[in-house]
Design goal:
The chain is α/β, with parallel strands linked by helices and 366 residues long. It folds into two domains: 172 residues, Rossmann fold, CATH 3.40.50.1970; 189 residues, Up-down Bundle (Dehydroquinate synthase-like, alpha domain). It is built from 13 helices and 13 strands. The strands form four sheets. It has a seven-stranded mixed beta sheet with strand order 1-2-9-6-5-3-4. It is an enzyme of class 4 (lyase).
Length: 366
Amino acid sequence: MSNITVSLPQNSYEIAISSGSLSQLGAKMKQLKLGEKVLVVSNPEVFGYYGDTCLQSLEEVGFEIYQHLIPAGEVHKHLQSIEKIYDTALANHLERSSTLVALGGGVIGDMTGFAAATWLRGVNFVQVPTSLLAMVDASVGGKTGVNHPQGKNLIGAFYQPKLVSIDPDVLQTLPEREFRAGMAEVIKYGVIWDAELFSELEQAEHIDSFESIEPELLNTILARSCQAKADVVSQDEKEAGLRAILNYGHTIGHAIESLTDYQEYVHGEAVALGMIAAGEIAIQMGSWKEAAANRQNKLIAKAGLPTTVSAKVKVKDVLEAIKSDKKVKSGKVHFILPKKIGAVKITDKVSSDVVKESVLQLIGNS
């Protein structure tokens, strides 16, 4: 069991990691005094596995419970889905003291958080992540939002949860592909912040499935990844500077996702490709050694993640897509580039030719 505090000037909260904790969610929320009405937002598949346990834990301590299901997948992460959450909130008379609970992966967490941030100008919000990616990344830090047709996560708000409750046991039903996608974000933390975590992943025999990974290593992955994100967010809640390093691999990764209509790559797979491209950019710019890039790329492959991109992704389209990235400032795209395992830098000095070459490498090796 691990308890990690995200320390903020206002609205600090706890990340509670404990096996079997889903059945104790209601009791944990009751301690936080989060009002009487709770709306649980999930997708049908996750709810089918864990909805009853979640609802029962809330019911046992006296919460008035409602539910709202959204079809699974990034393609449903849009404003129309948020409107439907509002409709359910309105129909059941949710008040400012009420709570929205996100039971699901990163997509459900992002949408539920955005709905909580904007319904009645802000209601309570609790994250109960059920995917590895959501546990180590999406559920922590208060980034919420939806996609715009022209780009990923362009509509959103910073809105911190009251609690992040992580039950590692729910990962046993997570599809293997989604587990691997979560490992991309774990590897990211190793590159940007935690060289020791990176080394532990290198030394592990297997990291590509829940069944093959050692329980002790899984606990380490969850705790160290959440601690890394908590450390960064505590220093820079709203991405004024340092927090941007958490976007390592995301600039080109988001472009690949959107250019393939969120159908060909899940988020973690796209991030893995983006990290490989960022590593190539860093090599070309002389800030990273090829040996370190090879270590990163080998670990990505070890996690069962893609290392080449579909030929249907065109370089010119990637260059155009990154112009709409959230990290564009004064017309310049800001890239997060590695300096060594465990440290990165933020720069807007990357030429389009260098980006082009890095994407060509991704396509050319396929």
